[in-house]
Amino acid sequence: MGTVEQSRAFVLVHGAGHGGWMWKQVRDQLHAKGHRVFTPTLTGLGERSHLMSGDITLQTHIDDVVNVFKWEDLTDAVLVGHSYAGWVVTGAMEQLEDRVSGIVYLDAFLPDNGQRGMDFLNEQQAAAFDEAQARGDVSRPGPNSKALRIQSEEDAAWVDSKITQQPIGVSLQALELTGARDRVAKKLYVRAPLFPQPRFDAALKRCQADDSWKTTVMENCGHDPMIDDPDAVVALLEDML
Where is the AB hydrolase-1 domain (predicted)? Predict the structure, then answer.
């Protein structure tokens, strides 16, 4: 149980097509335990979907997260990135190294210097991406509950009602990293294997082989553990304190 003395700031960053809404149950539990919780919605998604444009880049989303820390004066915080947000939090760490004491990759990409989202697409995805660009589209469809492996029908319907388009421009920018992520004192990689993603499997193995990382496998969750099992996610996050 969290106490006032143990209270911490958590910044929870959502994945592609999602928004801050996805953290509702986790956020409410952490608030009830006395923590400060921030669930920013990245530009162009969720309740900020009216801001969708071709000008949105990965840097835009990195700035979204960095600015939460700056304007809320956050220090000694736990930063969490889900799925696509692995790119975002990795880039944000380059500006937040003195403000983050723990980082969590929740079924997320674990990118390295010089990589970009386009590099991680399979052949079919890359073809669809190229077609969207050729049409002049600025976004692509977000995932649906079936693809996400949402476990309950009620949750699946809720998620499908909230998913929005994902901006294409975020996949075109390469990360420029100096290793700030790897210097964070506490690092956790969480894998939800009901969701098939070889990149995440590789990231889990990589972290398991590195003593500076802790790892957890959530066997009974789809790609959105904060929806399928919010209690377990809260427990994992409090272990980062």
Answer: 10-235
